[in-house]
Design goal:
This protein is of the alpha+beta class. The protein has two domains: 1-106; 108-195, hypothetical protein PF0899 fold. Helix content is 68%, strand content 12%. The chain has a four-stranded mixed sheet with strand order 2-1-3-4. It is rod-shaped, with a radius of gyration of 51 Å. The chain starts with 6 loop residues before the first helix and ends in a 6-residue tail after the last helix.
């Protein structure tokens, strides 16, 4: 046991011990606080980093979804417009062909067309009774049938034939010939729609 000359010596010794212990405790606490602070800062940074990247990933996914939706919408709109333009162009070509056919029916070449189509029909139907169908008020076709066809016949004017020509039906033989310009135009129109580069692929 140390010997103290007086109370002051004892006080100084105890005071030094207390201060030394206090300093050690303070240093220990400072280190613990510093370690905890560093650990918590790293944890908070990691959480913020994770949250930011998670939000960023969500934003990027949303942007990608929006971009894909917009791209699809633009592609669909472009396809719709392109198909509309193709259809308009095809229809304009067919309408121009139709006008040419109507002009042909009004020309002096139309009687030759009817005459050529009537040639051989009498022989083919073996002079049996034939029903002709022509466009309403088609005086050229009606007169040509009356003057050129050999055999019994009946002529019917119908609205279904809009341009010209005729159809001939022999019910007794079960034969029907469609020599209308309308039918030829429909055939050409169908072929054109199927084979034109303007048709949709």
């Amino acid at each position: 046991m140390p010997y103290f000359n007086n109370n002051d010596d004892a006080y100084r010794l105890f005071s030094r011990d207390i201060l030394q212990k206090a300093d050690e405790e303070i240093n220990r606490l400072k280190k613990e606080i510093s370690d905890n602070k560093e650990k918590n800062v790293k944890r908070i940074e990691a959480e913020i980093h994770s949250r930011v990247f998670r939000n960023l990933e969500i934003d990027i996914n949303d942007l990608n979804a929006d971009f894909s939706a917009n791209l699809s919408r633009v592609r669909n709109e472009y396809t719709r417009i392109l198909m509309k333009k193709r259809r308009e162009l095809l229809d304009s070509i067919v309408e121009a062909a139709r006008k040419k056919c109507i002009e042909f029916v009004s020309s002096d070449k139309y009687p030759n067309f009817i005459d050529a189509k009537l040639a051989g029909i009498s022989e083919r139907f073996d002079k049996k009774s034939v029903e002709f169908k022509v466009r309403r008020n088609d005086k050229v076709a009606i007169d040509m049938i009356k003057n050129k066809f050999e055999g019994n016949y009946e002529i019917k004017e119908i609205n279904e034939i809009e341009i010209g020509g005729f159809s001939a039906i022999c019910y007794e033989m079960g034969i029907m010939l469609d020599e209308t310009i309308d039918a030829r135009l429909r055939e050409k129109q169908l072929w054109f729609y199927e084979h034109s580069d303007l048709a949709s692929k």
